[in-house]
Design goal:
Elements: E1 2-6, H1 13-24, E2 27-30, H2 31-44, H3 52-61, E3 64-67, E4 70-73, E5 76-77, H4 85-95, H5 98-112, E6 117-120, H6 124-128, E7 134-139, H7 142-151, H8 159-175, E8 188-191, H9 197-215, H10 224-228, E9 255-263, E10 267-271, E11 278-281, E12 294-301, E13 310-312, H11 313-331, E14 335-343, E15 346-352, E16 355-360, E17 379-388, E18 394-398, H12 399-417, E19 423-432, E20 435-439, E21 444-448, E22 469-478, E23 483-487, H13 499-502, E24 508-517, E25 520-526, E26 529-534, E27 556-565, E28 570-574, H14 586-589, E29 595-604, E30 607-613, E31 616-621, E32 643-652, E33 657-661, H15 669-676, E34 682-691, E35 694-698, E36 704-708, H16 720-725, E37 732-741, E38 746-750, H17 751-768, H18 778-787
Parallel strand pairs: 1-6, 1-7, 2-6, 7-8, 21-23, 26-28, 31-33, 36-38
Antiparallel strand pairs: 3-4, 4-5, 9-10, 9-12, 10-11, 12-13, 14-15, 14-17, 15-16, 17-18, 19-20, 19-22, 20-21, 22-23, 24-25, 24-27, 25-26, 27-28, 29-30, 29-32, 30-31, 32-33, 34-35, 34-37, 35-36, 37-38
């Protein structure tokens, strides 16, 4: 019996025909697939589509077969290859070739011969099966058909491009010289524009049931589920208890539905609408059936040795199982299975009905599983990646993709249904230094270490156990980042809510040191209230480099509350504030002018550092080492460990600095020199160095002065160079003090003034000494005087 469904592209004829075939158990025949297969073969084999002879030759030699996994061309499954934009663009032209249509129609009739078929196509009821028992013409407006084809997702064209393609296709189909698109005589016309697929299928099945009733064909019992799929109506009332499996006498090898009429200890007896009942061994049922229950069976033999009908439920189950596998593969639906064992490259999976599949190692879990991981015994859902049943069965499944999609669905549902403050249950999955990850059903939430307790938490493992099922409060949700923050501590009240009732700034409280950092020590004054004693608040006098120098974790200490912020949960504490500040009375213990000896603690190029007492340092600058000697580096005066006597010069309590001096232990030689040798005085000295601008001369007290070359000699009397040549370092010399400044530590001397003074004295003496017998030159007298 043939059911022919015609209609233009996008009217839904293929979808409707396929569903009707499933409902009736008929063989589904899609004529369009044959034309598409020829078109695909032309393109695949490099044949010129515009060469009719080559196209016809290919069609004549093509061998079409319908297998359980779909249409095969020359032994190759082409079901997934013929749905492409390239095929869509050319199939209408190729199918318009008269000889090609004749060849395809012959092949369609050959496949349909002796079968109950539901066939669809543009001329299926007018040319291919003009005597079909039921003819249906499905139609819809162009806009609706374009949207349907676009949403199928099999085309890379835009919606507008799909619409134009359908309009062109309609025009070509209507103008074809043979097999043009038109409604067959007597066909049931259905406009599907405003109908659902289910509504269209109900009307088609109703027409088939009516035809079957009129012809008195065989109609076995319909299942309860199938009854729900039919809408009651005048044409169905008498047939609601019947299911259209076959409208011709049943054939051996055919799958038919039956109804359980009797159950014994060994057999289940089934009415299959034949002259006798079939009996099925009870072990073919997973669970005992009930009287009246519908089951599918395969007709093995119409008459056995004793004239009884022989059926097999196991073979029917296998056929249904394979059909379900194919449907799952085509529709990308999950199937159930159990992982049996590890094999090379992955795992063996039992899908049921003695059908096994291969699960690659890389697709067993959402996370990369180690080679040693054992998944044996795990029951799960899988997607079918590959299904090939001709010859040796080859099925490849994917668990990872199913898990990823399942996890995404559950995560999306979580974010949609759960709100902040809700209590959820999860299993502790893993630990990190900052908390624990909790499995909420394939996706994780974070239980941060700070949310485990209001108090200080050092080890997450002290609060939750690995694998433990716990209840937690949701405190943060970020769907965009898939971030979920959980909390244990929010089951109890925040202790900061009552802080001001118990504590005030300035209070001295006891606390336990919980943690040390480079910048301070954390101290818990009660569970859930923890404050920071900054490193600068640990000691009045000690230069603390790290808090461990003062305290260690676990120490119970007294501390003073310096400040707090309830909103941010911050508390500032101080340890040194509990003790008196030694700098407040420092000048009483170490008054200015006090002399003492201490060892050098440290030094820098410009200063020496001494510990005056524990935690209190003093600084001796290089300028305060000597009145007269200039030290460029303090290391040339002393080194760490040397004991030095010094005097306290000044104390700055605000900056906590003590200034020390060594030179202040003795009188300033500059002041002594200024008193002893005022300006104009003659002073003895020793030349220490000779430079191009004068002599450096050391005088009493170790003070060094300068006789500038301008103050050496009168140029009219003698050249400066001649005078300098007569002297060397170490020679004694007399000169006159021109300037002495203790504040500037400056001493200027003059040899020329000394010579003038000596000349004047000698002249005066010469004039007064009349008894002098021998005359000598003034210069000789001066030189002799200077040397004396």
């Amino acid at each position: 019996m043939e059911i022919a469904i015609d209609g233009p592209a996008g009217a839904g004829k293929s979808t409707v025909a396929k569903i009707v075939a499933e409902k009736t158990g008929f063989f589904y025949l899609n004529s369009g697939s044959f034309y598409r297969a020829v078109t695909w073969a032309v393109l695949d084999r490099g044949i010129e589509p515009e060469d009719p002879e080559q196209v016809v030759k290919l069609a004549e030699n093509a061998v079409f077969t319908m297998e359980t996994d779909g249409l095969h061309l020359d032994g190759q499954r082409v079901e997934d290859l013929i749905r492409s934009d390239a095929v869509d663009r050319r199939v209408s032209r190729l199918s318009a070739i008269p000889r090609v249509r004749e060849i395809v129609n012959e092949k369609l009739r050959a496949i349909a011969k002796g079968r109950n078929v539901v066939a669809d196509g543009r001329d299926i009821g007018t040319v291919v099966f003009p005597e079909a028992a039921v003819k249906v013409y499905l139609d819809a407006d162009v806009k609706t058909r374009a949207q349907r084809r676009f949403h199928q997702g099999v085309s890379g064209l835009s919606l507008e491009e799909v619409r134009k393609s359908i309009e062109e296709r309609d025009l070509q189909d209507k103008e074809k010289p043979v097999g043009s698109l038109k409604k067959a005589h007597g066909a049931l016309y259905i406009d599907t524009s405003g109908l659902t697929i289910e509504q269209v299928c109900e009307r088609v099945v109703g027409a088939i049931l009516k035809k079957a009733h009129e012809s008195g064909r065989h109609t076995p019992v319909m299942s309860t589920e199938d009854k729900k799929n039919l809408t009651p109506g005048p044409e169905n009332n008498q047939l609601q208890e019947q299911y259209v499996q076959s409208f011709q006498p049943i054939e051996e090898g055919q799958m038919i539905p039956g109804r359980v009429v009797e159950i014994s200890s060994d057999y289940v007896y089934v009415d299959v609408g034949y002259k006798s009942e079939g009996k099925i061994p009870t072990n073919e049922f997973e669970k005992p059936p009930a009287i009246g229950e519908s089951v599918y069976v395969i007709l093995i033999r119409k008459e056995g040795k004793e004239g009884q009908v022989i059926v097999s439920k196991r073979k029917a189950d296998e056929k249904i199982f394979w059909k379900d596998l194919r449907k799952a593969f085509d529709e990308h639906a999950p199937v159930e299975g159990t992982i049996l064992r590890r094999i090379k490259g992955g795992f063996e999976v039992d899908l049921g009905n003695e059908i096994h599949a291969f699960l690659p190692q890389s697709k067993v879990d959402v996370k990369r599983a180690p080679e040693s991981a054992d998944f044996a015994g795990v029951h799960s859902s899988f997607y079918i990646d590959r299904l090939y049943a001709k010859g040796k069965t080859n099925i490849v499944v994917d668990r990872r993709q199913w898990m990823e999609e399942d996890i995404k669905k559950r995560r999306d549902a979580f974010f949609q249904n759960v709100k902040i403050g809700d209590v959820v249950e999860g299993i502790v999955k893993s630990f990190t230094s900052f908390g624990a990850f909790v499995d909420l059903g394939g996706f994780d939430g974070l239980l941060h270490i700070n949310d485990m307790s209001w108090g200080h938490v050092t080890r997450p493992k002290d609060f939750v156990k690995l694998g433990e099922s716990i209840h937690l409060k949701v405190i943060r949700l970020e769907p965009e980042e898939s971030r979920i923050n959980l909390s244990l501590k929010h089951f109890t009240e925040d202790p900061w809510n009552h802080f001001e009732e118990k504590y005030h700034i300035g209070d001295v409280v006891k606390g336990r040191v919980t943690k040390l950092t480079d910048f301070g020590a954390f101290i818990e004054i009660e569970e859930g209230i923890e404050g920071l004693a900054h490193i600068s608040e640990l000691s009045w006098v000690k230069k603390v480099k790290h808090p461990r120098e003062i305290v260690k974790p676990g120490d119970v200490v007294e501390t003073k509350i310096l400040n707090y912020d309830i909103q941010q949960g911050k508390l500032s504490l101080g340890l040194k504030q509990v003790l008196p500040n030694p700098w407040d009375e420092i000048d009483q213990h170490f008054p200015v002018g006090m002399r003492m000896k201490r060892t050098v603690k440290n030094l820098s190029p410009s200063a020496l550092f001494f510990e005056v007492e524990e935690g209190i340092d003093g600084i001796l600058h290089v300028d305060d080492i000597s009145w007269t000697k200039k030290y460029r580096n303090a290391a040339s005066f002393a080194k760490p460990g040397d004991e030095i006597e010094f005097m306290i010069l000044a104390i700055d309590r605000e900056k906590q600095k003590i200034q020390l001096g060594v030179k202040q232990l003795s009188e300033d030689p500059w002041e002594s020199l200024a008193r002893a040798y005022p300006r104009g005085s003659i002073i003895d000295g020793e030349i220490t160095s000779i430079t191009e601008f004068g002599f450096f001369v050391k005088v009493q007290g170790g003070i060094e002065g300068l006789i500038h070359k301008s103050n050496m000699v009168d140029p009219a009397v003698e050249a400066v160079e001649t005078l300098i040549a007569r002297y060397k370092a170490g020679d004694p010399i007399k000169s006159v003090v021109v300037e002495v400044s203790p504040s500037k530590q400056k001493l200027s001397l003059s040899l020329r003034d000394f010579v003038k003074r000596q000349q004047k004295e000698e002249i005066e003496k010469y004039i007064q000494d009349d008894s002098r017998e021998e005359k000598v030159s003034v210069a000789d007298l001066i030189k002799e005087k200077m040397k004396s």
